[in-house]
Amino acid sequence: MPDIEISIGGRNFTVSCQPGEEHFLRGAAAMLDAEAAPLVAQMGRLPESRMLLMAGLMLADKTAAIEDENRQLKLKLAEIEARPQPEREKIEVAVVPPGLRETLAEIAARAEAMAASIEDRLQ
């Protein structure tokens, strides 16, 4: 079992952990140290047990607030997911008949021929 040296509130501690879990321990110690640092800065040197207790309580308070927010967000998500899905809007797209392009081209050609014929008569 590896021994890890951690620092909380300016004090060093040697703690054992399971192999491979050293980074979890260091992360937890860093969180506790972040809570202890302002306490030590405000109150000066505190007894070790009091510093750890206060830092632990502050960290527990933050954790409780996050858990409460998480619970509320899960309730909102469940409410949103429980809503019935709206019906999908149907969009109709006009279908161009297969011979329409040829018919339009033929009509355009006739119109042009008629216009040319009228121009010829006017001259």
From TrEMBL:
It comes from the Bacteria. SUPFAM superfamilies: Cell division protein ZapA-like (SSF102829). One of its GO terms (biological process) is cell division. InterPro entries: Cell_div_ZapA-like, Cell_div_ZapA-like_sf, Cell_div_ZapA_N. Pfam families: ZapA. Keywords: Cell cycle, Cell division. This is Cell division protein ZapA.
